[in-house]
Specification:
The complex is a heterodimer of chains A (113) and B (114). By secondary structure, chain A is mostly beta strands. Chain A is built from no helices and eleven strands. In chain B, strands 2, 4, 5, 6, 9, 10 and 11 form a seven-stranded mixed sheet that branches. Classes of the chains: A mainly beta (113), B mainly beta (114).
Chain lengths: 113, 114
């Protein structure tokens, strides 16, 4: 079951904050976040595991609410380099140790000067 | 070279052609994946290989045929494609089975079927 992301698109000014949400109708065991710039490969940002463990980017934070089956990505003091499309991916095995992911439809973030 | 490399970057083919996409990973990973990214659609997992064995075929039509001769190389053989198969095809690799892992993606092959 594909996770659902919201919002679909965000436009920010540099220095503003943004939150991107990812929710699933199925139980979530781990959530992976990626960013893809136009014409480039998706780049890993963060993984959140059931139980609160996290691994990822220093300047980006995220939360994982297992009961609500939701994850949120927090982009604070946004920079121009944050522009791109953000994808959340869920792992059907719940182990966190696979690249076999079901991705959401993506959230396009544009940061303007 | 480092990371995941895909060739060609762009491909235009007719519906009766046969072509192949190539992916090579230089990360020593044990798993490789093919994903399809269509316009305004999420990334869709197509195939998974772990230690050269196919472990997942996500209901992909037989006109797409994967091949994994070793843990560093992955191919996607294409034949008699349809225009709706036009998309960005992404290859990824990861190290499965050892703690949590991230997938490393190549830059993709932009395929246009005419």
């Amino acid at each position: 079951q594909q996770p659902v992301q919201s919002p679909q698109a965000v436009i920010l000014r540099e220095g503003e904050d943004a939150v991107i949400n990812c929710s699933s109708s199925k139980a979530l065991y781990s959530v992976h976040w990626y960013r893809q710039k136009h014409g480039e490969a998706p780049i890993f940002l963060m993984i959140l595991l059931k139980g609160g463990e996290q691994k990822g980017h220093d300047k980006i934070s995220a939360s994982f609410n297992e009961k609500k089956q939701q994850s949120s990505l927090y982009l604070t003091a946004s920079q121009l380099s944050y522009s791109g499309t953000y994808f959340c991916g869920t792992d059907p095995y719940g182990s966190g140790n696979t690249g076999k992911l079901i991705f959401g439809q993506g959230t396009t973030l544009q940061v303007k000067p | 070279e480092t990371g995941v490399t895909q060739t060609p970057r762009h491909l235009v083919m007719g519906m009766t052609n046969k072509k192949s996409l190539k992916c090579e990973q230089h990360l020593g990973h044990n798993a490789m994946y093919w994903y399809k990214q269509s316009a305004k659609k999420p990334l869709e997992l197509m195939f998974v290989y772990n230690f050269k064995e196919q472990t997942e075929n996500n209901s992909v039509p037989s006109r797409f045929s994967p091949e994994c001769p070793n843990s560093s190389h992955l191919f996607l053989h294409l034949h008699t494609l349809q225009p709706e198969d036009s998309a960005l095809y992404l290859c990824a690799s990861s190290q499965e089975g050892t703690g949590y892992t991230e997938a490393f993606f190549g830059q993709g092959t932009r395929l246009t079927v005419v």
